Amino acid sequence: MRITEIETRLIRLGAEAWFPDGIVPKSSIPYWEFPLVTVHTDEGFEGYTMGYAPLGQGKANFHSIHDVFYYDLVGKNPLDTQAIWQTIRFKNRHLYILSEAFHAELDIALWDIKGKKANMPIAALLGKMRDKVPLYMTSPPVQLQDVEAVKNQGKLCISRKYAGWKLQLTGSPDVEIPKLQLAREIVGKGFPLMLDCSGVYSYLNALKIGRALDELEYEWFEEPIPDKDIEHLKKLTNNLKTPILAAETASLFDLPQYVINGAVDILRGDTHLKGGITGMIKTLGFCEIHGYELEIHTAASPILDLANLQIGCTTHLSKFLEAHHPMFRFGLIGDPLDVKEDGCQHLPSGPGLGANIDWDWMDNHTVDKLKGCTY
Hints:
CATH topology of the largest domain: TIM Barrel
Distance between the termini: 24 Å
Number of helices: 12
CATH architecture of the largest domain: Alpha-Beta Barrel
Strand content: 15-25%
Number of strands: 13
Shape: globular
Structural class: alpha/beta
């Protein structure tokens, strides 16, 4: 089997749904453009993948797939995922302005083809461990602006039967700690609560918040300071009872430094930021050998989150999967990423990623298309 062509369409979503009042601030991007990639083969199998777009990078991603990586795939056997993965990995050495996420996006499409060729889900192809994974709800800062907003999000989490609730807060400790206390009051003792601070705090502010989390018995404290600040992550890990979860933004090949230095209690990864399905196989193997859990992070892109679900069903190292804002679950028939009555995401039964794409919806939201390479 050979890859014969790559086609990409740019899917545009209005950003209004992200904001509680439905109004996009002038300082924000008015729409998000997600590249949806189809990899074609000479046997008729097609592999799908998608990029991430809320920061305005969608159009650059759209063009880079064809300008930079086209000949790394076309003409190759899509089943040779390891060979293609290594080729692109070493190419990335010189792509200084591009993220390794491109690497991951292409790998996911190849695994989609592999699963379709074998007529089984990717999870089954890898060796399935479970059919479903508990799902927690994430509330971003824009949905947690005040006490009333926190109450509304907590009620939503409970009513939808999520298995946990993660708050994303980035304000001063004096402002945010009362929200953390309120969240515990809403859900009750024992219900899994997590805090994600997106790496914005100094060590001392993170320590202050972390001590509050210790009292409130939160499940973890995620990215309290920048992932690159390994020394201060180590100090937090040593000084707090609440587990420190970090390394979301770190490369797969940077993870040994977190383990060697004892900088985290739990590692973070997903198919987008850790090299696709191939990269996550390596990441999970590394974590299991060294005795670490790896919590799988949302990719905030529906095809990528199907890949996360597939890999999540092959491991016991991730207690949960993550559900972000519902606007990220677009263009799939049947909403397979939504929480079910048992508080879980369930593995789709179809082959490959199990993506049942709503092409009518995609057509209505496509603003540009690319096919082939410009040179």
